[in-house]
Amino acid sequence: MLHILFFLPLILTSTHVIAQDFCVANLEGVQTPSGFACKMESEVAPDDFVFSGLGIEGNTSNIVEAAVTTAFVEQYPGVNGLGISAARLDLAPGGVVPMHTHPAATELLYVVHGRITAGFISSSNAVYLKRLRRGDIMVFPRGLLHFQINAGKRPALAIASFNSPIPGLQILESALFANDLPSALVEKTTFLDYAQVKKLKALLGGTG
């Protein structure tokens, strides 16, 4: 009897909890580490829950011969607060998505067609490398450096999913060479010679 009396207030209280079905992002507001503020439910429309961009082939006419089309919260407000997002990866023959990390999400990559060599490096510097074919999936743990390369002679396509609507992205090469970090410091911290640093900065638009 005492056990029943103890749990009764919990049962009664739980009936007054209001569950929020969704929190479509108000992109005009400020983004915080926990996401965007919610739109008023009266302003939410079906289109907020639909994103058609992953059906469009990306433009791979660039230095890396690859294109990533993201369906993160900024492009897809309906995923705000739901712990999920996606992206499309197009790789021309020889194309590469350079070493990068997603600080806020684990990535699951599904190969739609083509052959992709992909891998990641653990915090103990162990390398996990695999050639993927159509239908394969590979997981890249949160925050670890990873990459994808077209390993075939035809274009490759993959779809990535993330367990965050805001996975974050930091590309290693851009972080080192596409900003104004002084070349002398880059040389010292990467063991590259000064000429190599200046060449890479010029290639990627960096200064310093």
TrEMBL record:
InterPro entries: Cupin_1 (IPR006045), Germin (IPR001929), Germin_Mn-BS (IPR019780), RmlC-like_jellyroll (IPR014710), RmlC_Cupin_sf (IPR011051). Gene3D superfamilies: Jelly Rolls (2.60.120.10). This is Germin-like protein. The lineage of its organism: Eukaryota, Viridiplantae, Streptophyta, Embryophyta, Tracheophyta. Residues 61-198 form the Cupin type-1 domain. CDD domains: cupin_OxOx (cd02241). The keyword Protein biosynthesis does not apply. It comes from the Eukaryota. PANTHER family: GERMIN-LIKE PROTEIN SUBFAMILY 3 MEMBER 3 (PTHR31238). Its main location: secreted. Keywords: Apoplast, Disulfide bond, Glycoprotein, Manganese, Metal-binding, Secreted, Signal. It comes from Hibiscus sabdariffa (roselle). It holds the Pfam family Cupin_1. Belongs to the germin family. Residues 1-19 form the signal peptide. It is found in: Secreted, Extracellular space, Apoplast.
